[in-house]
Amino acid sequence: MRLEQQLEHLQRQLGEAKPLADRWTPVVSGELRPGAKQVHVTLAFGGRRTTAVVSVDAFRSNTVDDLTISIIDTLAESLLIDCLREVIRPEVERLARGAQALPRATV
Question: Of 31, 37, 45, 93, which is most buried, counting CB atoms within 10 Å of its CB?
Answer without folding.
Answer: 45
